[in-house]
Model the fold of this input.
Amino acid sequence: MHLTFDLVAGTANYVGLDADKESEKHYRPFADELKDTLVLMNAGYFDIEYCKGINQFKGFLFYASG
Done:
């Protein structure tokens, strides 16, 4: 399951269900859409260029690595 959730509004912006064989990177928001947004991801999403993009567009990032 892939979920984008707005904590302030308390609503889901996106919910998707797919088989585990699909890459989860296809479901992440674009970095330029994440200004003033906290992004929570697990280690399966790690991509240093994506992290740099989130920082460039003034977003915030938290990775759980295990």
Observations:
- Strands lie at 2-6, 11-16, 38-42, 60-64.
- The CA atoms of residues 35 and 57 lie 6 Å apart.
